[in-house]
Write a structure and sequence with these properties.
The complex is a heterodimer. By secondary structure, chain A is an alpha/beta fold. The radius of gyration of chain A is 14 Å and the shape is globular. A 6-stranded mixed sheet of chain A has the order 2-6-1-5-3-4. Chain A has one domain: D-Maltodextrin-Binding Protein, domain 2 (3-Layer(aba) Sandwich). About 7% of the residues of chain A have low confidence. In chain B, helix 1 packs antiparallel against helix 3. Chain B is rod-shaped and about 230 Å long. Chain B starts with a helix and ends with a strand. Among the domains of chain B are: 167 residues, Beta-Lactamase (2-Layer Sandwich), CATH 3.30.450; 150 residues, Histidine kinase-like ATPase, C-terminal domain (Heat Shock Protein 90, 2-Layer Sandwich). Chain B has 10 helices and 11 strands. In chain B, 61% of the residues lie in helices and 17% in strands. The model of chain B has no long low-confidence stretch (mean pLDDT 85). Classes of the chains: A alpha/beta, B alpha+beta. At the A-B interface, helix 4 of A face helix 2 of B.
């Protein structure tokens, strides 16, 4: 598995990632460290108290793989495991792993406080692109 | 060991009830409980497998909520003791030569359920493990449900079994009663009836209106007894007929024997008659000769006496005394008067003897009349006289005979047989007088009949003897002194003459026979 992960890591090509969020609760810009904190379940509420809902692409997808690499610097499995332990320990709610960008964007648009990572800017109503350290993609 | 039918029925019913009770109280509940437990185990396992599968799918789908959802599948189950999501890690030793699998709990619901229990010792909980393996992790779902409901179900099963057993027991008792009554009572009734029938009581019948085999048996039994009764009646009737036929046969045999004896007696009498006739005939001529010569002899003697008297006169008157002395001496020696008297007496005796012999011969001839099957006119008085003559030797100097023989006409009869009757009665009368007595013989006419009475002053007869006197072979004489046929034959002879014979007797006073014979046949 480790070998596969290494192989995966060596073979994966990083895709530029864009952070999108629901227009309610999620700030339009944030620092990268905050993003990490949120995506690792450490920060679970936005400044206005809205609960954080994380939506990322499945680790089997290119975007998902890039997300694991860039955000977590882990393999997809490790990310899943991390979130498994975190969620089952009750410390945080696990992210929703989506199959397609449209699906992810749809979830984000429907859930206040939802944040997601895709490979493009938001296109739906109710969803905005979040600048990370002022950049997009980050 | 013999058991009565009722006992067998009860034993059977109790055995069935006991077996059912065993099954319903012990075996079935145990089986049910075992099945319940097995099913519960399976259910728990299936549930664990379901959760495990859900978790596996969720993990594969990277749907961590789905994992919690899968675990939450049993959250509201009241039986839930705990459900755990375990992560199985392979722990290698430093040398990477050995490994051990270590489970770590990722999630538990309820969260405080960390109690460790041993299912071997604690049967209040059933714990099942369902492993899964995904790329993320290998793990297992551990699901523990309590067995409270099982215990409750077990109690319900036992209670139901108890109730069913009780119902079956009561039903069994009732069934036993019903069966014993419906089977054993009629069978016992049949037995008792059969017993009585065996002892001869054919009035026995059993009442059973059931339509089953026992009813059929009762019907068959009743029919059998009816047939037996009928057969017995027929047999009794046949026996009665047989007895009657037997009696008739005996009577016929008796009659035949009597007839045979009568025939023999008649044959004897006939033979005797023939013999007597022969003897009488042979004696008759010489006696007639003697009788015929007595009178001439007497006449000649008279003449001789006359000559002797003349000679005496001449001698007395004309012969000198000296010359007549020889004649006188011879006369004195011979005692001529005495001699003459003696000769007269002798002649008289000879005459009487001849006369008597002649009477006896006549009597014998009368007695031995050979025309026995032809009715002839006969003089009854002469017959009686003849019989008295023949019997004279047996009653002379002892019994006086008083005769009162009336003026009676001759009677159509079988003379020989009528003589036989008179001889028989007179002979019996003589024998009935042990020492001295009198026999009265009387005859008279009564309209168209002639009556003959022979009465003796003998020992008489008792009532019992009088009833039997005319029975064949009945005799009051000693063994070998009488055949007992005389009176029966006499009775038969008088009957043949369309007459009757009456008997009057009193013990120690004497006996009288009155014979009535029609004058004309």
């Amino acid at each position: 598995m480790l070998l596969l992960a290494v192989g995966f890591m060596t073979k994966t090509q990083e895709i530029p990632l864009t952070v999108i969020g629901n227009v309610t609760g999620v700030p339009s810009a944030m620092k990268y460290s905050e993003l990490i904190s949120v995506l690792k379940g450490q920060k679970q509420r936005w400044n206005d108290g809205t609960k954080v809902n994380i939506y990322i692409m499945k680790t089997t997808t290119p975007i998902g793989q890039s997300t694991c690499k860039k955000i977590y610097n882990w393999s997809g499995d490790k990310v899943k495991r991390y979130w498994l332990e975190l969620s089952f320990s009750g410390k945080a709610d696990a992210p929703i792993f989506c199959n397609t960008v449209e699906e992810l964007e749809s979830y984000v648009s429907q859930n206040p406080g939802a944040i997601g990572i895709i490979d493009r800017n938001a296109t739906s109503n109710g969803v905005k692109t979040i600048l990370i350290d002022g950049k997009n993609p980050f | 060991m013999k058991f009565k039918l009722k006992t067998k029925i009860w034993l059977t019913v109790l055995a069935i009830v006991s077996m059912f009770s065993f099954f319903s109280l012990y075996y079935f509940p145990r089986q049910q409980e075992k099945n319940l437990l097995d099913n519960y185990n399976n259910e728990v396992q299936n549930l664990a497998n379901t959760i495990s599968l859900g978790a596996e799918i969720a993990l594969t789908e990277e749907n961590f909520e789905g994992v919690q959802t899968a675990m939450g599948f049993v959250k509201d189950d009241p039986r839930l003791q705990f459900v755990k999501l375990l992560m199985t890690d392979t722990m290698w030793n430093n040398d990477h030569t050995h490994f051990a699998l270590k489970d770590s709990v990722l999630k538990t619901f309820p969260e405080k359920s960390d109690k460790v229990f041993d299912p071997q010792l604690d049967n209040s909980i059933i714990k099942k493990r369902s492993p899964f393996s995904t790329e993320i992790m290998s793990g297992a779902i551990e699901l523990a449900l309590n067995t409270t409901i099982i215990q409750q179900d077990k109690r319900k099963i036992r209670n139901a079994s108890l109730i069913i057993s009780a119902v079956v027991f009561v039903f069994g008792i009732l069934l036993g009663f019903v069966l014993s009554r419906s089977i054993s009572v009629p069978v016992l009734a049949l037995r008792d009836a059969a017993d009585k029938v065996g002892k001869g009581d054919l009035t026995q019948r059993v009442v059973n209106n059931s339509g089953d085999e026992i009813g059929e048996l009762s019907t068959a039994f009743n029919k059998m007894v009816t047939d037996l009764e009928k057969a017995r009646e027929e047999r009794n009737k046949a026996n009665q007929d047989l007895a009657a036929a037997n009696e008739a046969l005996n009577q016929t045999v008796s009659d035949l024997k009597a007839t045979q004896d009568q025939l023999i007696q008649a044959e004897k009498m006939a033979s005797l008659g023939q013999l007597t006739a022969g003897i009488a005939h042979e004696i008759n001529n010489p006696i007639n000769f003697v009788s015929a010569n007595i009178q001439p002899l007497k006449d000649d003697l008279k003449d001789i006496l006359k000559i002797v008297e003349v000679y005496e006169k001449v001698i007395n008157d004309h012969v000198p005394q000296q010359e007549a002395a020889e004649v006188r001496q011879l006369r004195e020696n011979i005692k001529i008067d005495t001699t003459l008297k003696e000769v007269n007496d002798l002649l008289k005796g000879m005459e009487e003897g001849a006369k008597r012999t002649s009477e006896i011969v006549k009597g014998l001839r009368n007695f031995s009349r050979l025309d026995q099957n032809v009715f002839l006119s006969a003089n009854i008085n002469e017959s009686l006289d003849s019989c008295l003559v023949l019997l004279h030797n047996s009653y002379k100097n002892r019994i006086k005979i008083e005769k009162q023989l009336g003026e009676i006409p001759e009677v159509d009869c079988l003379p020989g047989q009528i003589n036989q009757v008179f001889m028989n009665i007179l002979s019996n009368a003589i024998q009935a007088i042990p020492a001295e007595g009198t026999i009265f013989v009387k005859t008279w006419q009564a309209n168209a009949t002639v009556k003959i009475s022979i009465r003796d002053t003998g020992i008489g007869m008792s009532e019992e003897v009088q009833k039997k006197i005319f029975d064949p072979f009945f005799t009051t004489k000693g063994v070998g002194k009488g055949t007992g046929l005389g009176m029966s034959i006499s009775f038969g002879i008088i009957q043949k003459h369309n007459g009757k014979i009456e008997l009057f007797s009193k013990p120690n006073e004497g006996t009288e026979f009155i014979i009535t014979i029609p004058v004309n046949q």
